[in-house]
Amino acid sequence: MLRVLGGFKLARADGQVLELPGRKARMLLSFVALNAPRPVSRERLAGLLWGDGGDRQALHSLRQCLLELRRLGERAGGELLRSDRESVALGLPAGCVDALAVQRLTQEATPGSLRAAADICSGILLPGAEAGLEDFDTWLAGERARFARIAAGVFSCLTASCEAQGDWGGVGSAAERWLVLDPACEEAHRALMRACIATGRRSDAVRQYRDCAEALRRHLDAEPEAETKALLRRIRNSDNAVLQASVSVATLGDAQEPEGRIMPVKPSLAVLPFATLGGPAEGGGFADALALDILFRLSRLRSLFVISHGSSFRFRDAFADPHTIGRALGVRYLVTGTVRIHGGRLRLTVELVETETGAIVWSDVLDRRLDDVFAIQDELTARVAASLEAEIETAEIRRALVRDPASLDAWGAYHRGLWHMFRFTRDDNETARGFFRQAVRLDPFCARAHAGLSFTHFQDAFLHRTADHAVETDRAYRFAEQSVALDQRDPTAHWVLGRALWLLKRQDDAVEELNIAVDLNPNFALGHYTIAFVQAQGGDTATALRAVDLAQRLSPIDPLLFGMLGVRALACLNLGEYAQAAVWGERAAGRPNAHVHIHAIAAFCDALADRRDEARAYADRIRQTAPSYRCADFLLAFRTLRPSVADLIRRTGPGIGIPP
User: Fold this and answer.
1) Which CATH superfamily is domain 268-377 in?
2) CA distance linking residue 495 with residue 484, whole number of Å
3) In this structure, what are the phi and psi dihedrals at residue 236, rounded to the nearest 5 degrees?
4) Predicted confidence (pLDDT) per residue in 125-141, tens digit
5) pTM for the full model?
6) Each residue of 50-60: pLDDT tens digit?
């Protein structure tokens, strides 16, 4: 077991502590562990830890350190690290590293996993590990900040979950542990104040406010926020009975204070408790479970600001309009729903409401048989979370389109760029690039804007819009790397990096990045689609079909639906199923924004299915939009196709009017 949170400790399964041979060995093991499962190059490790000497000396010191760690692992009966001539990777199972366990448990986002994660979060990452080495210390500071954010998210969700269930002892325990890590966290102080109120301890609530004010003054030289002061006023101005009611049921008076709450820059939303219509009494519990699961999945998205259900679930019985609730919670969107269980069937109705206007942005009705409650719960929450993510992004694009471009903030400029980017024309791609550059100027740390820039260069390379394919590929890769560096937890950043790596013919690395993207957000339809895109060419056809099935279930009207259908056509070519390939190819070419390569897929598949007239018609369309298009252009774009399929393309094209 390797512990890096709250201190460094390496122990065998029986609890015996293992002493490492020196400080650099601890640093090396910690760095490799926190980068798992990705291996780290030997050059990177040598420069990081021994960069003050020459390259040869640094690599020699690294080899000696690895040898000592290998011997220690052998004495302990296990493998600490695995290494080859190029790189070093973690040999321990990921579950044996506390920080990696916290990441996994946080991604699961269930009440049980959050409690387990909270038990592990016992302190800051590697306290006292600063080494006076600039690169290592910079990395350590970034990792500490990242794990501090993870821990804050764990304790925020855990306190909110306990509060929603009326478990005030659990609220107190979680909030107190949170304050050990961050003594000036007002959200934790407010949770303790509400716990005191709910249990009739007004004086303790006031004392907690004073502790909060003192911690803010000492650590941040700041005063409590308006929300914290408002809570103190309610404590002082109401009797105990009113106070205890106010923390369990949201009243209109609570909703109006503090006044004029500022909306976050990112789209913000709250998931309200779902109502149960008829059916057995336990339906209410299932409705709450669905709403909570949807909230937890949405809260993992880097593109959304999601209010904890400790706040949103107070509106369970409130008959306030969306505008009032939105103003109280400071959110742009509300998610509401109803559950009806009858005759062995479940019907879920979900709505996405814009709080400013009260307009219903999106709604859906899902019917399922109650064969396996947990499987149905997982399926419904995945489907709804993916749909909500897509619909909110579409709504944000619409908001950006009606504004003066000069008045856009970084987030608005990014969404304006998305609209143009997905139109897949040369002019729109240039316009999109301009908006992404505007977003970067307004916010140099906007990872999504850098991801957008990467994708515009990917388009130019993939569609051969410039003479220098290598330059566009390099730019796609460079901007993708910057996006990941700015936010390693954003699946969109890893998505564009995966696509750029595929352009560089690094298929295994591309698949690894794309898998990271869907691990970060299992509902990320574009991530699953791109896994299918890569695997359908030179990889595993069965994996490609499973991935594209999931992508279409998650986003049935995606702007890249033409690509998903095109992937199905390529997969069928691999299997020799030409008639089915032609069906998928024609459906892909019929979608809006389908680019020239998609029309080429339709043409080749029709020709192989002996649909020569239809194939020639697609070839004619290609000549109208890209007169110089050749089979070689297609094969340059889809450079990882199986040799047998590439040979079919070369032999088929000339017969339908596409030159070799």
Assistant:
1) ABC-type transport auxiliary lipoprotein component (3.40.50.10610)
2) 10
3) -75, -30
4) 888 888 788 778 878 87
5) 0.56
6) 877 677 888 89
